[in-house]
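Figure S4 source data
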Amino acid sequence: MLLCVDVGNTNTVLALFEGDDLKQSWRTRTDPNATADELGLTFRALLDGHGLDLTGIALSSTVPQQTAEVERMAQRYYPHAHFVAIAPGVKTGVRLSIDNPKEAGPDRIANTHAAYHLYGGPCITVDFGTSTNIDVISEHGDFLGGAFAPGVEISIDALAARAANLLKIPLLKPRSVIGKNTVECLQSGMVYGTAGQVDGLVRRITEELVTEPTAVVATGGLAPMVIEQCDTVTHYEPNLTLHGLRMIFARNI
């Protein structure tokens, strides 16, 4: 069994793979101050009955302090499991065609690898998380760069913090684009506004590509709320990062 761990700024997603098959997944809140022992207790509780034959752990982490703690946890609690973290020196199969390759987050590298091998290239990934990340993959599988925008929840929090009469709202699809009350107006702006932003960026990116993208792949925890309103998204793969981790792990054993 292979355990893939994607540590994001807001959530940590874990998935248990047997070969290419995803058997079980979990989503927890990311605590940047969690120690190796705290992580070990959490992982053992989740894996109870599933991971007794754990042979490998693959990690993608955008939270630097958690990268080291997860590795310590793996060494202490799963000493016989082969550990691979996406970092400089690891064979990812992804050429980073950007100004500073060190700036490419491990989740973006994993998404690139998975999207190219699942859908071909050129293609575009849209990761709806803490930020909305749009990444571009060439026809040869190279990471070309992309665009960042504030995520849906960040935008809601910012409005609630800066506007005295606007409260934080539940992220739900409103009954129409024209909101009939304050909550629906905010929901419309968040859902349809984010969809319009994504469509606009994807269309501009497509204009810069020599070849039409084979796919525009959505992923991330907030994707289900928005992608139905996106005209440019062609595929939804909720576990894109985890599949990328699985594939990269296989290249390093």
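Figure S5 source data
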Amino acid sequence: MSVLTDRYQQLKTLLSQRDIFTDLVVSDYFIDKCYIFSKNNLKGDEYNLYIQVYDIISSYLPKPEIILYLYNSIEQLLKNIAHRGRDYEQNMSPDYLQDIQASYMNYLSHITNIPVVVVDTHELDFVKNPSDYEYLKSLLEKDYPKGMSIVIPGEEQESLKSWELV
């Protein structure tokens, strides 16, 4: 519950500080992430209570116009976690990360009212390579159909692709 309310407060603060002349807000977080994680981590009455609070809180926030999901291999995710060095992340197992990633893909595949762009970031390093970061930003300027699109950088045709969870 504390994560959900903290994220709500962060998003509410971000939106209240928004420049009225700017109609674009880019966030590395959306409130539905709380929902996805709760399905993997809570059971029974805890989950039911969480969803009741989530439904109330999420109804007060604007919905995204596009979701850009950065997909990477479990191996790379584990390397990123080790590199960040956050204590609370260090004991995440590959199976747990696989479950979370599968939950994200399942959730995102059911969104049909906005574009959901899944980007294979296996070959990208947007932290160290400014051109990779600029490439990701450029994806937000393109038109995508509603529903899921898969982008594999370097391919001539960035369009719907079949997707296998690795």
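DSSP finds six helices and three strands in the chain. Residues 65-153 form one domain.
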